[in-house]
Amino acid sequence: MQIKCYSAPDMRRALHQVRSVHGPQAIILSSRRVADGVEVIAADEYDAALLDRLAAAEGGDVSPLTAGKISPAVAGSMEPSGWNADPAIAQLRQELTTLRGLLEAELRHSAQARRSPLQARLAQYLEQLGLDGGLITDLIGAVREQQDLGVAWREALGTHLAARIPIADTDMLADGGVVALIGPTGVGKTTTIAKLAARFVREHGARHLGLLTTDNYRIGAHEQLQNYGRMLGVPVQMVESADDLRMALAALSHKRLVLVDTAGMSQRDLLLGEALGSLQGVALRSYLTLASNAHPFMLDETIATFGALPLAGCVLTKLDECPALGAALSSVIRHRLPVACITDGQRVPEDLRVARARDLVSRAAQQVCARAPHGAARVATAPLATADTVAAHA
Ligand SMILES: Nc1nc2c(ncn2[C@@H]2O[C@H](COP(=O)(O)OP(=O)(O)OP(=O)(O)O)[C@@H](O)[C@H]2O)c(=O)[nH]1
Ligand SMILES: [Mg+2]
Question: Which residues surround ligand 1 with Cβ inside 6 Å?
Fold first, then answer.
């Protein structure tokens, strides 16, 4: 059974597409309104099991809707209202959407497997990294035709994935100036500021560092940074407004580096972020802090929200708690957001590293290996996943 999804500005044009591919006997499995029109899922064969389930949910007979039988006038009534407002139908639609996803993935794999078994296996391994589908297709397209899976894997990761990861060309500490960490709640901003501060103090001394926090409206929130500041011998100043911040930065202008910690995401922080970005004559760089173990939707939404501000790059945190780094890598690649540094633990200042594409790739590869407890996957990925083999290829 061939199932395909069609998108068109309206139902009439969607059905035209369905008929031209599957013929007049095409079965319409579902239709729904989407942002830019309608989406229709159609099949070219009768699926008795599926229709039995529909019949059971309807409490009677359900005939397959065929594209040939649907007139343009009726097509309008198939838009998601009325008949499919029924919860049972809504549940079926949900199941069909899931089924569609599974079938599409399966079809993609089997089409690919027919074309090239090696590419199909490579795609399966790349999926285990957590990379998104578009990036996987891109990587597979870039790998040269060859017979050896190991060579293809190393080339896909060491050469092509590594080359696509944007890395910040500025050094958060060595370049000095004013560095602010912004981002959602609990992603590790304050801890990372403390790590950066401790590293800087170790290399340059406490007197060249300034510490500011905008996190002044949550009870006790600033104490976390105050404690770190005390340990390092650097006073922490709280600022309440953009004006405060401007004055504080003017007062700290003789410092080689000023680190600014902010509170978690809220409209207030965004406004403050805009104020940070609009400060003229200040060498300020804002870095978005992203928890690498966050859901891909969350990562995309965060980048979209904070991307409205001028960002110098991002910090990827919690790599130690991230089961598949590919999701975060896919997000920064898709949004072209350079990674400046990574954190992989709670220890201050040990668990902080300057970002390197090869290191990120080999961490991602090692996760695949670690997740394959034994058997074929482990055997296949173990020699591929070590930092040396991937890095050597880059
Ligand atoms: N495992 C792990 N935990 C981390 C890492 N970085 C920070 N954390 C922990 O994450 C928690 C939140 O860290 P914070 O630094 O307070 O996060 P924040 O972004 O400042 O949070 P808000 O100020 O509430 O927005 C703390 O328990 C940290 O110890 C990391 O790289 N790995
Ligand atoms: Mg904080």
Answer: 185-191, 215, 263-264, 317-318, 320-321, 343-346, 351
Residue 333 has pLDDT above 50, yes or no: yes
Same domain, 77 and 192: no
Q: What is the pLDDT of residue 56?
A: 54
For residues 321 and 339, give the distance between their C-alpha atoms in angstroms, rounded to a whole number: 18
Residues near ligand 2 ion, CB 5 Å cutoff: 189-190
With respect to residue 47, please indicate whether it lies within any of the assigned structural domains: yes
Read off the CATH number of the domain in which 266 is found.
Answer: 3.40.50.300
Distance CA 343, CA 41 (A): 44
Query: For the segment 222-240, what is each residue's pLDDT rounded down to a tens digit?
Result: 788 889 999 999 999 988 8
Question: 287 in helix, strand or coil?
Answer: strand
Cα–Cα distance, 312 to 355 (Å, whole number): 14
* DSSP-based three-state secondary structure for 341: strand
Q: Is residue 83 in a domain?
A: yes
Domain span holding position 3:
1-115
Look at residues 339, 333, 331 and name the one whose alpha carbon lies nearest to residue 356. 339
Question: How many other CB atoms are there within 10 angstroms of residue 335's CB atom?
Answer: 18
pLDDT bracket for residue 129 (50, 70, 90): very high
Kindly give the distance from the C-alpha atom of residue 264 to the centroid of ligand 2, in angstroms, as a whole number.
Answer: 7
Atom of ligand 1 nearest to the CA of 344: 31
CA-321 nearest atom, ligand 1: 1
The amino acid sitting at 374 is H
Q: What is the predicted pLDDT for the residue at 193?
A: 97
